[in-house]
Amino acid sequence: MKYLHTMVRVSDLDESLDFFLDKLGFVLVRRTDYEKGRFTLAFVAPPGDEAYTLELTWNWDPEKLSGGRNFGHVAYGVEDIYAYCQQLMDKGVTINRPPRDGRMAFIKTPDGISIELLQLGDALPVAEPWASMPNIGSW
Amino acid sequence: MKYLHTMVRVSDLDESLDFFLDKLGFVLVRRTDYEKGRFTLAFVAPPGDEAYTLELTWNWDPEKLSGGRNFGHVAYGVEDIYAYCQQLMDKGVTINRPPRDGRMAFIKTPDGISIELLQLGDALPVAEPWASMPNIGSW
Fold first, then answer.
1. Could you name the CATH architecture of A5-59?
2. How far is B128 from chain A (nearest CA, A)?
3. Is A77 in Cβ contact with B6 (below 8 Å)?
4. In Å, how far is B18's CA from the nearest CA of chain A?
5. Who has the most CB within 10 Å: A68, A135, B33, B45?
6. Measured distance CA(A3)–CA(A110) in Å, rounded
């Protein structure tokens, strides 16, 4: 038995592809438009780990996508959590939970799905400006 | 960069461990109880693919865990989708979307998280009783 993927719905595929590809640096592994069913599936993955995709489902008929408490987050490991968060901030992404501990940060997709970022290996040394950075909103 | 895990919250850890370990046949990779924070993290994974865990977060203070539309499902591949679904049914698990096509089924966790089951490799030949089995509820 084998883990395959996690699926989240997106309300605006262009906005979500901008978020995952341009801001997070993910790669688009596959995209299929289903004319008859009026939906598109786009599989995105972190660079270097393309076997484990996040499936983005975009239903063409508009729908408000609210969140629920039974789902938590999807987690990715990064090589340098400070450099990665700085890159996100430079692109206008809010760091809801900054990596004050050199180890863990949280951001949110345009549809409010929480994404956990974890430093691979040992935590980085605690450092400014991260150590003093406040939380923003929820995650 | 690397995919690490998906986290879902559970309202009753014993019920969820029964679901994942006894009914789905997953393995418990790690469990940690956090007395001070009053929560438990349990990482479960499909047998044979223990690197890719599902993190179950159980907050000790009771909370109603409703679902939202922005999250879709977590998907696992199985060797024989008919045998796997039969095993689930024998243990009392509702197959919300039976594998009528020999390829895909959906079930739900006790807290309403959808789980997609996909036949690894080619679809199995369409066969009864699966082909005539109706959907039950949503997924």
1. Roll (3.10)
2. 23
3. no
4. 17
5. B45
6. 25
- Per-residue pLDDT tens over the stretch B104-120: 999 999 999 999 999 99
CATH fold match for the domains A5-59 and A73-132? yes
Task: Return the residue in B5, B21, B85, B88 with the most chain A beta carbons within 10 A, the one to mutate for interface testing.
Answer: B5
Is the alpha carbon torsion for A39, B105, B21, B23 positive or negative? positive
What is the distance in angstroms between the Cα of A133 and the nearest Cα belonging to chain B?
22
Rounded Cα–Cα distance for residues B29 and B43 (Å): 5
- What pLDDT, in 10s, does the model give residues B70-97? 999 999 999 999 999 999 999 999 999 9
For the stretch A86-127, pLDDT in tens is: 999 999 999 999 999 999 999 999 999 999 999 999 999 999
A-chain residues within 8 Å CB-CB of B65?
68-70
Burial B115-132, CB ≥16 within 10 A → b, else e: bbbbbeeeebeeeeebee
Query: Which chain A residue shows the shortest CA-CA distance from B56?
Result: A72
- CATH architecture of the domain covering B73-126: 2-Layer Sandwich (3.30)
What are the sequence ranges of the domains in chain A?
5-59, 73-132
For chains A and B, count residue pairs whose Cβ atoms are closer than 8 Å.
143
Q: Which amino acid is at B99?
A: P
Give the residue numbers of B annotated as catalytic, written as ranges.
116
Fold adopted by A73-132 = 2,3-Dihydroxybiphenyl 1,2-Dioxygenase; domain 1 (3.10.180)
In whole angstroms, give the CA distance from residue A89 to residue A102: 16
